[in-house]
Structure formats: C-alpha cells, structure tokens
Amino acid sequence: MRSNTRRAVAAALVSALAVTALAACGTSSSGDGKPDKAAPGAPADASAPLDPNTKVTLTIDCMPPAAKAAELKEWKEDVEAFKKIYPNVTIDGRSTPGQCLEPPRFTAMLKAKSQPDVFYTYFTDLKQVLDNSGAEDISAYVTPKSVPALDTIDKNVMNVLKQDGKLYGLPTSNYTMGLLINRKLFTQAGLNPDTPPRTWDEVRAAAKKIAALGNGTAGFGEYSVENTGGWHYTATLYGMGGDVVGADGKAAFNNPTGRQIVENLKAMRWEDDSMGKTQLLKWGDLQKQMASDKLGMFLAAPDDITYMVQQLGAKYDTFGMGPLPGGASTLFGGNSYMIKKGSSPDKIKAAIAWLNFKTLTVGKGQFDFARSKADGLPVGLPQPAFFVGASKEQSDALKAASATMPVANFKSFLDNPVPPKGEPAKAQEVYKVLDKVMSGVLTNKDADPAQLLGDAEKAVNQVLANQ
User: Fold this and answer.
1) Exposure string (b/e) for 107-131, b if CB count within 10 Å is 16 or more?
2) What angle, rounded to 10 degrees, do the helices at 427-443 and 256-266 form?
3) What is the distance between the alpha carbons of residues 246 and 80, in angstroms, rounded to a whole number?
C-alpha cells in the first residue's frame, strides 16, 4: 500500500513530491467529463519530444496540499520553470488534504472514468487500471529523447509498469520494507539501536523489553485494516522465505511458515502484551504512536520517517532502520503516474515532458537535494533508489552532500540488503482478504490461526480465479 511504498532520471528540472501522498483526487480529462479523442494508434512522430509551441492543459493529481508548505512551494516553482520551456502548457494541479490514493476511492474513480489526465498509482494498480481501460500505452512516447535518463532506471522498476511488453506508466518512487525503530525507546530499554533485531525471535524479545517501560508504550505495532494488514503479512512472509501466491497461481500461505507468523503475533499480543491494547490500526496510526514515543518498532519503508518528522513533529535522530526480519527477501513496491486512456498525442507528450521535468531527472525535481535542504525538507533517506550506474553514483553523491539527517541510523538497513520481491497478483484484493487474518488474531484472544488461514486461503483462491 503505501505507502507508500516509493527513483528517477537525468535531464530536465525541478521538485519533490511527497511519497506519502497517495492518489485519487479525480477530475475528467477534458472539461466536459469526456475523454479526449485521440487518433487511433500512436502517431509516427510519437518519440519526438513535445513541441514547445503546443497548447494543452493537463490535470494532474497529488499536488501537495497547503499543509505541506515546502512541497507546495517547490511544485509552484516547478510549474513556473516548466512554463519557461513549454509556455503553452497549462498545469492544473489537484490535491487532497490526506492520502492521495485511497484504494476504494481510486477504484471508484477508475470505474467512473474521472481520473485526471495524469493520475497517481501504486505499482500494484496496473491490472486494475487496465481492466478498467484507464491508461494509455505510452511505449512509443517514452524514449531517451523524451526521458533522457531512461536507460539508467532500474529495469525491475520499469517492468512493473509493463504488460505484454507495453509501457503504461513512469515511476516516481520505490521502496523496500525494513524494520523501523524508535532509537530513544531502544536505548531506554537497554537495547542497542545500532543493531535492530534481525529475526522474529529477536523482535519478540525486544518488544517485551520496550513494553516493560510502561506508560502505555508498545514494543511492536501492526496494521490490520484497509488492506494494510495483508500488505504487512505479505512482507513478513517474504522475509521468512514464503510466498503469498505460488507459481501455480494459487494461495501459498496456508502452511507452517504462514501459520508461524500468525502464531507469533498472537503470542506477542496476548501472552507478552507487547503490542498495546488498541488494534484495528491502519497506515498513519503506527506513525503517530512512534512519533510520540509510544511504539518501539513496526515494519515500514524509509519514507515513513519523512511523514513523522514533517507531519507529526518528530525528530530525525529518533529513528533508525534495520533489514526486514528473516532476510530471505523483502517486499518491493512503489508509485507511478499513468496517463488517462483517450488522451490526445499532444497531452501524452506534455504529460511525459512534465514527469521527466518533475520526477525523473538527477539533480532536479525530487532529486534536487540542495533545494530540498534549503527548504527544510529531508535529505538522506535510503530511498527512492531506482537509478543504476552513472545516474545512481551522481544521485548518491548529491544526496550525501546535502544530507539533513543522521544517515548512520540507516546503516544496518543499507549494509544488509535483502533481495526485493514484487507484490502478488491482485495484490490489493489479496491484502483485503488477509486483513481478516491480522484483525482476527489481534482482536480475539481465542482466534485459531489455522482456521483464519484456511478461510483466507479459500477466499484468496477465489480472487485469483477471477483474474
């Protein structure tokens, strides 16, 4: 989910989109609610960059809200800078006060065909978007001419946005999961914050010591609603070497490894009392607990730290990260923008020009680390990280030069890389089913892990059978 979940490219200009924002502020592609009439198939000159004389208006969601003053300032600066290159392109940004992409609202938007011209998606949304004829095939338009750093974007990231060899989006960020810790609570509990737990036995032991601090402090926190519980169950299973969906296309979690996860959570919740009394938590809840020094650990991507500092008033040096417990693999995800189905060739070109300008250029946009530092935005998180080769080296050097946080706090995470694994087929629907496993064991002391997983297996197989 989120996430958020959450890389870029070399050659244009300016700004930083909050990875924590999540999409769905809808508007139609044309002013009348109808899609643009596009010529059938891409034009012969699709690979040519946008003509600066082209007159077109783009609606784009996930413009930072007023509450994110620095990001909004940079967005407006980028619009002005973009206008100097393309004076006849009008950027009509749309924002929401909370998460930009909420799955139920996103689905409703797709079905209503009300998405903006350029709309924000999770990596897991491609199938849903295509099932609803929501996005243009932009393969012919995305070349080293229109996106100069194209060949230095990790192919694993680009492939997430492809189906049947066709490209339907451009990435804005990516992430891999790890164990996020509150260094202050670790120290108070007599634990070493520089060596976060690497196994679930170690997590359980550390959680008990942190919970023993009292004052309503929980050692470990977990989600269980709005698809986030299933998302974290999947991440945990990956770390232990398992799969949610097997090679045969069927549910693969109802086995000893899958049950071990649920039994461990049950023990932490009800035997150890190290997970707190309040459950049925979603994204944002654990962050509030940790930012207020009431939670010791939870699974997360690095950008959660940004949210806690910018939105919740926490300090960077409070947090640290280690690799996902188990270390067999880690869940890989991220975010992208797609272009509304039915958009004209000019709109497609303008959208790609904006995305390249805003999010895919080393040293510019979200990778303009010097500007981010000057604006009081975080610099130094280990992600997004979708560049390879020379672009990665250049980006890493620029980041290090402008770091605003103690990067040593992420040393355990960076020094112990875990192989990434993509999210399962029909991820959001599968996560919704697995939420019931997580909420069941965390709210019912007498819950039977085997029964919860057996019921979930049947439901997930039904979801997968309807692909």
Assistant:
1) eebbeebbbbbbbbbbbbbbebbbe
2) 40
3) 49
Structure tokens at 300: 């997360």
At residue 201, what is the residue type? Answer: D
Q: What is the DSSP string of 90-120?
A: EEEEE--SS-SB-HHHHHHHHHHT---SEEE
* H or E stretch at 74: helix 69-85
- Give the separation between CA 285 and CA 447, rounded to whole angstroms: 23
The answer for residues whose C-beta is within 8 angstroms of residue 84's C-beta and 6 or more apart is: none
The CA-atom distances, in angstroms, between 290 and each of 37, 62, 466 are: 49, 26, 39
Calculate mean pLDDT across residues 383-399.
86
pLDDT of residue 44: 54
Both structure tokens of 21: 């924002």
- Which residues make Cβ contacts (< 8 Å) with residue 398, sequence separation at least 6? 362, 363, 367, 369, 370
Name the 3-class secondary structure at 432: helix
Of 74, 183, 173, 175, nearest in space to 406 by CA? 183
Q: Each residue of 31-54: pLDDT tens digit? A: 333 444 443 445 558 988 899 999
Q: What angle do CA 280, 125, 332 make, to 5 degrees?
A: 75
Query: Tokens 């919860």 correspond to what residue?
Result: 452
If you search the block for the tokens 């008990």, which residue do you land on?
208
| Largest CA-CA distance found in the chain, in angstroms, rounded | 68
CA–CA distance, 261 with 196 (Å, rounded to integer): 19
Closest CA to 266 of 255, 279, 281: 279
pTM higher than the cut 0.85: no
CA distance 38 to 49: 18
Instruction: Encode pLDDT of 222-232 as tens digits.
Output: 999 999 999 99
Helix, strand, or coil here: 7? coil
Residue with tokens 């978007």: 129
- Copy the structure tokens of residue 221: 């926190």
